[in-house]
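Internal tracking record. Fields below are filled automatically when a chain is submitted to the structure queue. Please do not edit lines marked as system-generated. If the sequence contains nonstandard residues, flag them in the REMARKS field before resubmitting.
Queue: standard
Priority: normal
Entity type: single polypeptide chain
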Amino acid sequence: MPKRPQSEYLERIGWAMYAFQGLEWSLIHVLKDAGQPIAQTSTKTSGPIASLLVALWEGDEVKSELASRFTALVTDRNHLAHSHPATMGGEDRVQSMHRWKVHGGNHVFWITDNWLDEFSERVRVLHRDLHVATRG
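SYSTEM-GENERATED OUTPUT FOLLOWS
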């Protein structure tokens, strides 16, 4: 069993996932408004939801950019969801999450406080921009 990370780090992980899931649920409702049955889209994972948005918003410059940003967030959300606990080096030796990035190169990257904060901010900004673009 790995040593317990600091509570603030765990809270950041929880907030990042919670914020992403809120964004995803908003996008499921966008798809519902476009005629996709919510009973079907609500059971899909993030990747297929991103693909539906890319197809739906093809040709709309603003919304296509939103779909691209969501697709990038899906990749990072998957990194977070599929990361593993490890001890991050140096003298401080803190418990953190790391991810083997096997697609496009075999190297490890750490899910740091900064990574989590930046991810959560990108989610927040996309959620705001989505609201402006789809609800006015």
